[in-house]
């Protein structure tokens, strides 16, 4: 049973005339009649009574008509839904990102993407790179913004370097101004506000301090990005944060650069190597790459 046959059957049932039905569906009348006969043969029952040139539905035809209409309507709905998805009118993208990138990078990018594709639902998951890699591997995310190098290198992931970002030190303007630029060794003994376990920034800061031979001193430990910035504003200590976060946070913070070579982090876009991301995710990837290219040009 073919959709085309059902379409011909419905046309004849509604016009009660083979020639007019053929004209409606834009097919030669002999071809239409042949397809109707093939459908009747497959079903094992005549669908039309053709007595004296009058076309009427048989009992089998009356039974099939509402079912055929429903099948054709469902097929049209399926075609429309798939076309909308293909044309990026509907769908979803599951994007993972570290908390600092959700705050610093994504708002402008997602605004741009949403303006272009308002029907695409954006599902965002915050987490450390380790957690995001795990979610990518099990298929729970389409794309993820992660910090390189990955905590657990995975050959099943493809990563595209997006940008390199300087880290800076933020402090309360009410506190004594630190030297500028600051060296990593200047952080020894300074009261620090530290992110919770699982934050890439925590690991990067701890590693830099330990490389210089000391353990940092924490006055407050365990916060998310907004909490850490709030604690710094309140004068509880300093914190090492990405420069884009410091720029966005602005009010109530003093920003001090780190002396060369300083601290930098590499941001990459990751997806599974064995499964192509959905089209909507690929378009979002292009928006992310385009946004970074435009930002880099502006900085130059």
Task: Write up what this structure looks like.
The protein is an alpha/beta fold and 300 residues long. The chain contains 11 helices and 11 strands. The chain has helices spanning 3-15, 18-24, 29-43, 59-86, 99-104, 106-116, 129-137, 200-211, 225-233, 243-249, 279-299; strands at 48-49, 56-57, 91-97, 120-126, 143-148, 157-171, 191-195, 217-223, 239-242, 254-257, 264-272. Strands 3, 4, 5, 6, 9, 10 and 11 form a 7-stranded mixed β-sheet that branches. Strand 1 (48-49) and strand 2 form a beta hairpin. Helix 1 packs across helix 4 (59-86) and helix 2 packs across helix 3 (29-43). It starts with a helix and ends with a helix.
Largest sheet: 7 strands, mixed
Rg estimate, integer Å: 32 Å
* Helix-strand string: HHHEEHEHHEHEEEHEHEHEEH
> What average pLDDT do the residues reach?
89
Uncertain segments are: none
How many DSSP E strands? 11
Strand content is 15-25%
**Based on helices, strands and strand pairing, what is the structural class?**
alpha/beta
Shape: rod-shaped
Distance between the termini: 64 Å
| Share of residues in helices | 40-55%
Number of helical runs?
11
């Amino acid at each position: 049973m073919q959709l085309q046959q059902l379409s011909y059957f419905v046309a004849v049932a509604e016009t009660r005339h083979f020639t007019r039905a053929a004209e409606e569906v834009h097919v030669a009348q002999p071809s239409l009649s042949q397809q109707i006969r093939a459908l009747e043969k497959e079903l094992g029952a005549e669908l039309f009574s053709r007595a004296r040139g009058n076309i009427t539905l048989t009992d089998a035809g009356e039974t099939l008509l509402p079912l055929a209409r429903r099948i054709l309507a469902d097929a049209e709905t399926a075609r429309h839904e798939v076309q909308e998805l293909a044309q990026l009118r509907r769908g979803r993208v599951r994007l993972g990102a570290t908390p600092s990138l959700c705050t610093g990078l994504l708002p402008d990018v997602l605004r741009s993407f949403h303006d272009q594709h308002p029907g695409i639902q954006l599902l965002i998951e915050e987490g450390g790179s380790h957690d995001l890699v795990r979610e990518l591997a099990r298929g729970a995310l389409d794309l993820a913004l992660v910090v390189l190098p990955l905590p657990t290198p995975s050959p099943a992931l493809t990563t595209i370097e997006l940008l390199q970002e300087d880290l800076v030190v933020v402090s309360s303007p009410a506190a004594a101004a630190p030297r500028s630029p600051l060296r990593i060794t200047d952080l020894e003994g300074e009261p620090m506000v530290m992110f919770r376990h699982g934050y890439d920034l925590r690991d990067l800061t701890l590693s830099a301090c330990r490389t210089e031979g000391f353990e940092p001193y924490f006055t407050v430990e365990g916060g998310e990005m907004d909490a850490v910035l709030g604690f710094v504003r309140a004068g509880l200590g300093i914190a090492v944060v990405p420069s884009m976060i410091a720029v966005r946070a602005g009010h109530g913070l003093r920003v001090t650069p780190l002396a060369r070579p300083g601290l930098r982090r590499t941001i990459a876009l990751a997806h599974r190597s064995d499964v192509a991301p959905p089209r909507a995710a690929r378009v979002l990837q292009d928006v992310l790459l385009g946004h970074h290219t435009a930002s880099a040009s502006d900085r130059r």
